[in-house]
Specification:
Largest sheet: 3 strands, antiparallel
Strand content: 5-15%
Order of helices and strands: HHHHEHHHHHHEEEEEEHHHHHHHHHHHHE
Number of helices: 22
Distance between the termini: 25 Å
Shape: elongated
């Protein structure tokens, strides 16, 4: 029985609940990290108002433990232990609820690989066969798209895959879901066509100049389809209709005449079979086959089969020639694809690519970064960015524009090595393993934001002490320039005997907040800007140079936007880092700045930072993609395409 794909909304609330639970899990994790900074490193408000921890809706044993009256109050109104329990409880529930979806989603590709038409497999893009020219009439687009529908209806493997594919779009708006289904079907039909073309054309395309050889291959295919699907009601009629769509010179007439005339009269359980004409949703529901009124007819005069009543099998190139619109749906020029799983080796190469890109770009803009930092630490000293350049070069020498170079190189080498592979990991973990397919497809932007935030948390742990040293070197060069990076680290760690090395993390909350905001917006804005540019100019993907140009432009947009939304945190970070003793927290630092210089102090240096961020993030993504191309880990390199090797035995 054909699986129905029309009603998937019974589990919508569970999908949404699972996604919201995951978002809550990420939020509690971030709270736990900030709380860790406050409790262990003694940052934040030390003597804030005390209150009992907020009760959490957990199992009885956990809730009782978490709401003890004698729990020591923390600086944020909830203890570290309470937050840890809350995080672990949400994690346990999320992972338990996710196990079901992980098991279900893992078999989707396997369903398609089990297609009865032949041997299905996922191969790298580099090894895929060449694109089929649309004028190759030995495998018409109409034949390929109707064969695709035939398999979705009669083949259990293809039907199971399509059901799960449709389920993954159920939380999208109706029009968006239909558009994605049409795109998936077009790519799936392209994989079918490529396998069909390879089979019919023969080794080295030896058959394409011989009508008889092509007919012989189609005869084998017809017999194979008949043997595999003839037990399903209506299959013989649909097979005859399918082969009637071939040009007369390629039709396997002898085999078609052997089909049982009575079997060709049997109609299947097609949802649209009781219609005299094509149903209105025929172009949206790709499991529908031709209505009952259409039949294959043999014409003795032409010695060929036709479809009666006549049907317009139109084939029109659309989307700048990247697809062909047919009566049975669009046929894409690109086969079905997926991203392959990433191993530790690939993550390592992503880290090297990110480290190289970040180090080179930050090194090139050190003078700009030095002036930006000096304007923040010495407000009113310079009239603007260019005045800062001229004044520093004149008063302190050209070398002053390169203060903190050692810290910049080391800090952003770590940043690139950590943030890029972590973003790739968290994005795939959230979208492929933790969340249901439907929720992941409907909330790609939110997933990108959370993944960018989590990656930035990891990067901040190593960047914070190095950034503190860089700011000290720029703000007070006469004191810290002679010490170098290691010497500055040693001095800062000894400024507060009670805190010791923890004093290096005085700016962690503000830096982490800045990086979380900046990093999440940066990755999301870059991806959306790239998608927008490629949607308008799809041909830019074809050449490496133009694709890198898109990375440069999209990176500039994402950098400028990210700098605007994270500017207040950056200003507070600079203010806190230059204070000795490390006892000023994020909120306290912001309060002091506003009281002293007004709210505008939180946006001090925004213009220079926007220019800096736009340039540096543009270069970052450009070099990141250059390194990825060098290592062979670009998007195409990490993609796999679905190929079918027809089996007519």
């Amino acid at each position: 029985v054909q699986p129905e794909v029309s009603d998937f909304h019974g589990n919508d609330s569970f999908h949404v609940g699972q996604g919201l639970l995951t978002m809550k899990l990420a939020a509690v994790l971030l709270q736990l990290l900030f709380l860790k900074c406050g409790c262990v490193l003694s940052f934040g408000v030390r003597d804030g108002g005390r209150r009992k921890p907020r009760p959490v809706d957990l199992p009885p044993s956990t809730s009782a433990s978490a709401s003890r009256d004698d729990a020591p109050p923390g600086p944020l109104g909830s203890t570290e232990d309470d937050k840890r329990r809350e995080f672990l409880a949400y994690a346990a529930v999320a992972l338990a609820g996710t196990f079901q979806f992980s098991c279900q989603g893992a078999s989707a590709s396997a369903d398609l690989e089990g297609i009865s038409l032949g041997s299905g497999s996922w191969t790298s893009v580099a090894t895929q066969s060449s694109t089929i020219p649309y004028y190759a009439r030995i495998c018409p687009p109409s034949f390929a798209t109707y064969l695709g529908r035939f398999l979705l209806f009669y083949d259990r493997g293809a039907a199971a895959w399509w059901t799960k594919q449709s389920e993954s779009y159920q939380l999208l708006p109706s029009n968006d879901a239909k558009r994605r289904e049409a795109k998936s079907f077009g790519s799936y039909a392209s994989s079918i066509q490529k396998g069909l073309y390879t089979y019919v054309a023969g080794d080295g395309e030896a058959n394409i100049r011989s009508y008889s050889k092509v007919r012989a291959e189609y005869a084998k295919l017809l017999k194979s389809l008949t043997n595999k699907y003839s037990s399903r009601p209506g299959a013989i009629r649909d097979i005859a209709l399918l082969f009637s769509m071939l040009p007369a010179v390629y039709q396997p007439i002898d085999e078609m005449l052997k089909l049982d005339p009575e079997a060709m009269k049997v109609r299947g359980s097609n949802k649209g079979s009781n219609e005299d004409n094509f149903p209105v949703n025929f172009q949206q529901d790709f499991t529908l086959l031709m209505p009952d009124r259409y039949d294959p007819r043999y014409d003795k005069a032409t010695d060929s089969f036709t479809i009666e009543p006549k049907i317009n099998l139109f084939e029109i190139q659309i989307e700048n020639g990247s697809s062909v619109s047919t009566t049975f749906g669009a046929l894409s020029s690109k086969p079905l694809s997926r991203e392959r799983s990433l191993d530790l080796g690939i993550y390592a190469l992503l880290g090297i690519s990110g480290g190289g890109g970040c180090t080179l770009t930050h090194t090139l803009v050190i003078p700009l970064d030095v002036v930006k930092t000096r304007m923040q630490t010495s407000p009113g000293r310079y009239a603007g960015l260019f005045d800062g350049f001229n004044a520093m070069a004149k008063d302190e020498g050209i070398s002053a524009l390169f203060l903190g170079t050692q810290a910049t190189v080391v800090g952003y080498l770590w940043y690139g090595i950590s943030v890029y592979p972590c973003y790739a990991f968290f994005k795939r973990f959230l979208g492929d393993s933790l969340l249901s397919p439907a929720f992941a497809v409907a909330h790609t932007s939110q997933i990108a934001l959370v993944a960018g935030a989590l990656a930035s948390v990891v990067a901040s742990l190593g960047l914070t002490p190095i950034e503190a040293c860089r700011i000290r070197a720029v703000a007070q060069p006469e004191t810290y320039r002679p010490l170098g990076l290691l010497g500055t680290l040693d001095v800062i760690s000894k400024e507060d005997g009670d805190l010791g090395w923890k004093n290096l993390y005085a700016g962690l909350p503000s830096l982490m907040l800045r990086q979380v905001i900046f990093g999440s917006v940066k990755f999301l804005a870059f991806e959306r800007a790239s998608d927008a540019i490629f949607s308008i100019y799809p041909n830019l993907r074809d050449e490496t140079v133009t694709a890198l140009g898109v990375s440069l432009v999209a990176g500039g947009i994402s950098g400028a936007l990210s700098s605007v939304v994270s500017q207040p945190a950056d200003s507070v970070l600079t203010f806190v880092a230059k204070q000795k003793g490390g006892n000023i927290g994020l909120l306290e630092g912001a309060r002091i700045m506003v009281n002293q210089d007004g709210a505008g102090s939180l946006f001090r240096g925004l213009g220079s930072r926007s220019v800096w961020a736009g340039c540096i993030i543009a270069g970052q993504f450009l070099l990141y993609d250059v390194f990825r191309a060098f290592f062979g880990i670009t998007g195409d390199d990490l993609n796999q395409v679905f190929e079918v090797v027809l089996d007519t035995s």
